[in-house]
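note to self: the first set is below, dont mix up w the second
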Amino acid sequence: MPSKNRPRTLKQMAARAGFTSRNTSRHVTAKNFPVDPARFSAVGAQVFSLGRTTEPEILAEMERRGLRPATIEELLAFCARHRGRLPLPNKHVIAALGTAFMLGGVERAVICVLAENGRPHLAPWDAVPGRTWFERTSYLGMPKSAPRK
């Protein structure tokens, strides 16, 4: 994507991916996620599932595949690339583990795309250490060669 057409703000990135204030959590803000427009790319993105598992097992699988957790920019770029045809069955989630932030200042969360009634929503998902992720969760990984902040 030419840089002059690249979205520059989190709001613009979300809009490019088809998210509006109606289907985006109030926690997805520029304050929680300062963005780098140069990172709005989904080149080499991979989505995979592991069934019921823990975050260390997910990260080990990413390592095995030569991947790292996707950032907010990469998650939104992936959604923009697949706008209207996300590989996401109803009641399933795609988690971007590289988006961890403190929800309400007390609980660790990551940003996910959640399918509800055929429509994607951008929302935080509880990611406290030791949590077991459920079967309907997929994870977005990026090649380790892709730049990261």
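second set (the one i keep forgetting abt)
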Amino acid sequence: MATHPKKKLILVDIDGVVLAHGTQFFHWLDHKGYLKGTNEEEKTDFLYKWHHREPDHLADLYSRSSEEIIYTYQEPFKDAKHYLHLLNDLGWKFKAITCHGSSSESKEQRRRNLFYHFEEKIWDEIICLGHTESKQATLEKHKGENLIWVEDTYSNALVGHKLGLTSIWMRNNNHPPKCADCPIIEADNWQEIYNFIMKLST
């Protein structure tokens, strides 16, 4: 059972959690002819299976797409803008852990994008990792703190869970994991996460 975190800090992935990157990357792959299927549902299913079969290849394509797509002003993910600011008004801050690229240009681009949509004061820290870099070492720094960790890649959410974090998997229309008793909390939007946090606070 989830318990209240030791401090009001929420660890967040960015693409597909705070910013709506997934849609841009999906359309880039489709435009380049990488996705197979006759409709969006079939192509989404193909992409999901491809991600689990060849994650490194997909990460390389993600890196290529970053060079071609203007990410500076990605739009906020669903209702993220409203609820991140609402949670900040209640004293919560956010630590971004994002595999957007570790170059100084990538870091500055990510900061500009976030600060364009979200007030700078809501961010405790913004950590930019390489496109294929593991998030485990960064998450391990918070081992035992029982912080909330929001991620749209199930394997990364599971890493957080194993480190004692309260992991929330943002489904993003992805297929549910194939386990009967998965320990990860699931959400479709930030309203659901907000409601979960409010229940922890009571």
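remember for set 2: The radius of gyration is 16 Å.
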